[in-house]
Amino acid sequence: MADAHVIETGDLRKHYDGVEALRGLTLAVPAGSIYGFLGRTGAGKTTTIKVLLGMARPTSGRATVFGLPVESPQSSVEIRRRTGFVGDDKGLYDAMTVRGMIRYTASFYPQWSRELEERYLRRFELPAERGIKDLSRGMRTKLALLLALCRNADLLVLDEPTTGLDPAATEDVLQALVGHAADRGCTVFFSSHQLAEVDQIADRIAIVDRGRSVLAGALDDVRAAYRRIELVFDRDAPDARFTAPGVVRVRRKGRVLSVLSSAGAERIVDEARALGPVSVDVAPVALKDIFLETVATED
Amino acid sequence: MLWHKSWLETRARFLVGLALAICAALSVVMLYTRVGELLQLAPPPDTGGVLGRKIREAVVLAQDYRGYVWSQWFAHQLTQMWTLFALLLGSGGLRSQSSRGGALFTLSLPVSRGRMVGVRAAVALAELAVLALVPSLVLVALSPAIGQSYSIADAVVHALCVAVGGSVLFSLTFALSTLWADLWRPLLIALLVVVVLSLAQTVFPELSRFSVFGVMSAEGYFQGDGLPWLGLSASAAVSAALLWGAARNIARQDF
């Protein structure tokens, strides 16, 4: 893929009836990455996806997909031609059958893969002749994924792709996604509340909160950079102020002072030793805690 | 394939309308002899006002089959039934789909919103043309069964006047449906407009040649004055403007 960044936004803003859904969002999604887009409900994830796919117009700022501006109707058609999409509502057409829905969608994509279609029909155990209105939520989700994957798209944009799936089906879908991305070399941009899923398949993440990106980077780098330093004192922990860069949050509880760092632990540990703790413990931080702490700092 | 989706979404309304219209056309043909007998028995109406005038007109028109068919079918039953289904077929669409799911999937397809709206309007207009034409041709085909005949050309011309003249009512509902996500508000507003137009035509009959229903009934053509070109052109132009407005409205909306 020629585009270095498949998706790029800069200071992207979107207002809906006085509500600021996006407040200067900046993103850069590298080609070939599996990019997890995290945020609380109402953080702006779905709005971002809608703006990227031309379903909502940005109020200001810049957004491109494949280098094409999203606000141009002509570019938007081309973007959608190269993109597979699963919406958070998993809305499909109740008047159609599974097979009808597949044929309908395939008609818009000359590069549609019949081989993948048959493979995913079997793998997801989808009843081809059943009406869409008779499908369970899990089945709808699987069909929506099939419709996105078989397009042979350069980019998959998935909004909460595993909603409604049981754990086994979720695992199956995640494996299918990873396998598909690896086989086809496509970029996957997916939003999720399920941090374990993101941890499992994403190689890059962005955490969005209140319409802004508050953390972005390669997941391994984020994991390596974030550390929790726990200092235990033989007295009440002091009200310390750290000058080292990357201090996200400092918590005092009795004799324990806990520091969350986004820039490693070394300099904070050096500073901490000057406070005279009886022990210093440095531990890696789980993605869930990074998420919760990052989002919490905005409160 | 957009047309296929539009067809699937509207076919129930269309087929119900078609079945009802064919039944109505059948009843118009089959009741001709009986209506003629009853009119001979009825004393001349002495009722004044609009009602009396309507009864006297009906008696005069029913004296020959062409007048009976025009009066009962093209000017009344077909026009009324067609109007109802024009409103039903005009309601719905992308905006209402957004409240019921499926709109985001549609919008994710590599098709412009203008094309989506255009195809949906074209499919519904084609269905409405069939809804006017087929029952009218059924009426022509059945007329020999009661020893009468009706001109195919007249049937086609009247049906087209119903469809083209009435397209403005479809387009009005279609345009209103791009303003609200629910199905009922556009339908009720359009229905209110139809009722007001209908009442205005009844109260002020001299305005009927300027009204949508006047164009649809094509009384001038029936009387031998030729097609209501001005009315047909005006209806088509207003209809096109409403559809254009609907497309513009959908194009600028956030979903």
Descriptive keywords:
heterodimer; A: 299 residues; alpha/beta; Rossmann fold; 2 domains; four-stranded antiparallel sheet; elongated; B: 255 residues; mainly alpha; 78% helix
Structure write-up:
The complex is a heterodimer of chains A (299) and B (255). By secondary structure, chain A is α/β, with parallel strands linked by helices. Chain A has ten helices and 14 strands. Chain A has helices spanning 45-52, 73-81, 98-106, 114-123, 137-149, 167-184, 195-201, 219-225, 266-273, 287-296, and strands at residues 5-16, 19-30, 34-39, 60-65, 68-69, 83-86, 155-159, 187-192, 204-209, 212-218, 227-232, 247-253, 256-261, 279-284. In chain A, strands 6-7-8-3-9-10 form a six-stranded mixed beta sheet, with helices on both faces. The longest helix of chain A has 18 residues, at 167-184. The radius of gyration of chain A is 22 Å and the shape is elongated. The model of chain B has no long low-confidence stretch (mean pLDDT 91). Chain B starts with a helix and ends with a helix. The interface between A and B is medium-sized, with 32 and 23 residues.
Distance between the termini of chain A: 40 Å
Largest interface: A-B, 32 and 23 residues
- Give the helices and strands of chain B as they follow along the chain: HHHHHHHHHHHH
The ordered string of helix (H) and strand (E) elements of chain A is EEEHEEHEHHHEHEHEEHEEEHEH
What about the largest sheet of chain A?
6 strands, mixed
Full CATH superfamily name of the largest domain in chain A: P-loop containing nucleotide triphosphate hydrolases
Shape of chain B: elongated
* CATH-derived topology of the largest domain in chain A: Rossmann fold
Structure classification of chain B: mainly alpha
List the helices and strands and how they pair.
The complex is a heterodimer of chains A (299) and B (255).
Chain A: E1 5-16, E2 19-30, E3 34-39, H1 45-52, E4 60-65, E5 68-69, H2 73-81, E6 83-86, H3 98-106, H4 114-123, H5 137-149, E7 155-159, H6 167-184, E8 187-192, H7 195-201, E9 204-209, E10 212-218, H8 219-225, E11 227-232, E12 247-253, E13 256-261, H9 266-273, E14 279-284, H10 287-296
Helix pairs in contact in A: 4-5, 5-6
Chain B: H1 2-30, H2 32-41, H3 49-61, H4 65-90, H5 94-100, H6 103-107, H7 113-142, H8 152-176, H9 184-203, H10 212-217, H11 219-222, H12 229-252
